Amino acid sequence: MCSTSSASRTITRRWTVAQADSQRFGARLEEAVDQFGPLCAGIDPHEALLDAWGLSVDAEGLGEFADRCVEAYAGRVALVKPQAAFFERFGAAGVAVLERTLDALREADTLTLLDVKRGDIGSTMAAYASAHLGPQAPTHADAITVSPFLGFGSLDPALDLAEASGDGVFVLALTSNPEGGQVQHARGDDGRTVAESIIAAVTERNAGEGRFGDTGLVVGATTGKDIADLGLAEALAASRAPLLAPGLGAQGATADGIARAFGPAAGLVLPTSSRAILAAGPDLSALRDAVTRTAGEVAAALPQP
Ligand SMILES: O=C(O)c1cc(=O)[nH]c(=O)n1[C@@H]1O[C@H](COP(=O)(O)O)[C@@H](O)[C@H]1O
To answer: Catalytic center at which residues (predicted)?
Structure first.
């Protein structure tokens, strides 16, 4: 009797842990990458792309653009990254399109990373986080990008809400723009670069997690020379952080170049492309072909463990 109830408690506990685990962002991402490969496809409705697709440069054109992206991306890639700026520029109507886009991808079981690069003092950060993380959030994504340059600790409200709700956070570390080094390569009193300190803080958060922790890092696909010069490849490989690597295609990075640049960390990289894929639109089958081709190139260059 006693042993039966202890066995059933063990089974219940195992089930609860397994259920919680499958709801964690890192676990969901791992499943998606296993199924679709590591490509993250971006939705960046630049004005030039709206024009090229024959759409009006307003919330209506934006809505048609985003709907077409959902049709092309859903069920074809591990992760889709809408860039909030291109929606917010159209005000409330643009934000409504963003909400509808995130909901449609969720309905299709495709993970979303909302690129909002939020960063503020902790109390304000909590409000930013509640806009996007957790099921109560009006503009809910599976993960968001955040900026740690007000100090890593200022991100705590977002990291804590993500942990509580099973969502993820991607922390900027080494960005793809040339100006980033001015801040990210600077060294603190301990001799470490800012980028290295951010990687260390994320590694601490991901301790004990599976292949992907819930806290990712953003490391531009074009930063190969910096990764080598600053000696960061081993630290990235040990971080358990999904490594969002924007810059594939339009910014000059290639899938093979990303594999070389990240070396031992290559198995954690999510190469990210927006304009290079979107240039294939507006024709839906051409857009789908571009997604499939890019996903194939990325999967071949970055074999999964
Ligand atoms: O956080 C990002 O996504 C990001 C970080 C970075 O270092 N560089 C970078 O380009 N990005 C974003 O990634 C996307 C790159 O778009 P494409 O250059 O068109 O592929 C844009 O949405 C950028 O805002």
So the answer is: 117
Catalytic residue numbers read 117
Q: How far apart are CA 54 and CA 177, in angstroms?
A: 30
77 sits in the region (left: phi over 0; alpha: psi -120 to 50; else beta) called beta
Decide if 20 is inside a domain: no
Q: Examine residue 30 and state whether it is found in any structural domain, yes or no.
A: no
pLDDT at 22: 54
The pLDDT tens digits for 132-190 are 999 999 999 999 999 999 999 999 999 999 999 999 999 999 999 999 999 999 999 99
13 CB neighbour count, 10 Å cutoff:
10
ipTM for this model? 0.99
Whether 106 is in the pocket of ligand 1, judged by its Cβ within 6 Å, is no
Domain contains 200: yes
* CATH code for the domain in which residue 116 is found: 3.20.20.70
- Which of 88, 272, 277 has most ligand 1 atoms within 8 Å of its beta carbon, as the pocket-test mutant? 272
Ligand 1 pocket residue status of 223, Cβ below 6 Å: no
